[in-house]
Amino acid sequence: MLDKEGIAKRIAKEVKDGYYVNLGIGIPTLVANFVRDDISVEFQSENGVLGMGPFPFEGEEDADIINAGKQTITTLPGASFFDSATSFGMIRGQHVDLTILGAMEVAENGDIANWKIPGKMVKGMGGAMDLVASAENIIVAMMHVNKAGQSKLLKRCTLPLTGVGCVKKVVTELAVLEIVDGGFKLLERAPGVTVEEIQKATEGNLIVEGEIPEMAI
Amino acid sequence: MINKKVQNAEEALQGVKDSMTIMLGGFGLCGIPENSIAELVKKGTTNLTCISNNAGVDDFGLGLLLQKKQIKKMISSYVGENAEFERQMLSGELEVELTPQGTLAEKCRAAQAGIPAFYTPAGFGTEVAEGKESREWNGKMHILEEAYKADFAIVKAWKGDEAGNLIFKGTARNFNSCMAGAATITVAEVEELVPAGELDPNEIHIPGIFVKRIFQGEQYEKRIEQRTVRKK
């Protein structure tokens, strides 16, 4: 079974040379730490920066340079700043190659829910609806089951949707799954995890074809 | 040169009245028009509809207007960092319209550019699409979103000149750039206001035609919401 860093490490392998990547808040943010340093990748933050670098050194933080999580950041050579409409133009116009975000539920038809729990505080969708509706290549980083032990990979989402039929791949602490016609196709198992354990934690239709390899991280 | 300079926030916000719709730039606390917000608090204008990506924090930004119950309705994409906001929303005192961030930005830009409405895929199949026209374009479903109509747009820039030209810094550009010219009257507050001719025309982000009144803010706190650093 993987921890959150492990999930981020596995997703980092999906980041290819020349990609522009948008990272959501939470596990996705960790992905930046594990991208190979022999490839060229630029990270986009939807509040208006391309070419994000690491957090600033103490004393060098600038109130005018933040990421979408409102954290102080730095920029790398080649970076640019732009307004919010231009930023979402990059996203809607499919200029961003890969979007990695978290979710509360994913359904076997690719639907995703990650912005609202009725009856509890509603913080808003931020840029999530724009991202999931537009991106060609969306990977969801999430835990396979919730704190109550219930599966988050469902036949149909029960929470209000963020987008329909948009998720392509899910990486959890247990598995890598691809969303295909008819369900979640199991691609890889986390180290030490059996197909039966993944089956038990998946409420949606799990498609298992042949031997399922263990992830190499 | 058409001179847009006014002396201070009080003069810049003349004509702001109860029940108006006001756009305010900023992302979180980054690039918010601090001096104009302070002036709105001082004026005590109420029943406002505010279009702003976020709603500030409890004791800064739009949170100051919420504390004084000056806002009737918030139109935002994310409002997570404000306990008073949550209280007013759950008690029904505050009306809230949540809009996807890219749609919010485009509704501003559309207003700025004279486009009455546009199609976007964001929100199709979700509760955001309820009551809106939907249509297939290039094999994909989209929903029709309308440009905002606002009485005032209040934006904040780094530098400006008397002609109303604006230059932003870093990610403080965000919605400020999209809102300039998107309302009947646009007010710009800047950290540094210079005479016309001092800014290089090649470097202008927003041309002065979009700005009606400009002033230099008295002071800027520029509070950081999530100070995140690494060790040397």
Automatic annotation (TrEMBL), chain A:
<dbReference type="Pfam" id="PF01144">
    <property type="entry name" value="CoA_trans"/>
</dbReference>
<dbReference type="InterPro" id="IPR012791">
    <property type="entry name" value="3-oxoacid_CoA-transf_B"/>
</dbReference>
<dbReference type="InterPro" id="IPR004164">
    <property type="entry name" value="CoA_transf_AS"/>
</dbReference>
<dbReference type="InterPro" id="IPR004165">
    <property type="entry name" value="CoA_trans_fam_I"/>
</dbReference>
<dbReference type="InterPro" id="IPR037171">
    <property type="entry name" value="NagB/RpiA_transferase-like"/>
</dbReference>
<dbReference type="GO" id="GO:0016740">
    <property type="term" value="F:transferase activity"/>
</dbReference>
<comment type="similarity">
    <text>Belongs to the 3-oxoacid CoA-transferase subunit B family.</text>
</comment>
<protein>
    <submittedName>
        <fullName>Succinyl-CoA--3-ketoacid-CoA transferase</fullName>
    </submittedName>
</protein>
<keyword id="KW-0808">Transferase</keyword>
UniProtKB/TrEMBL annotation, chain B:
<dbReference type="InterPro" id="IPR037171">
    <property type="entry name" value="NagB/RpiA_transferase-like"/>
</dbReference>
<keyword id="KW-0808">Transferase</keyword>
<dbReference type="InterPro" id="IPR012792">
    <property type="entry name" value="3-oxoacid_CoA-transf_A"/>
</dbReference>
<dbReference type="GO" id="GO:0016740">
    <property type="term" value="F:transferase activity"/>
</dbReference>
<dbReference type="Pfam" id="PF01144">
    <property type="entry name" value="CoA_trans"/>
</dbReference>
<protein>
    <submittedName>
        <fullName>Succinyl-CoA--3-ketoacid-CoA transferase</fullName>
    </submittedName>
</protein>
<dbReference type="InterPro" id="IPR004165">
    <property type="entry name" value="CoA_trans_fam_I"/>
</dbReference>
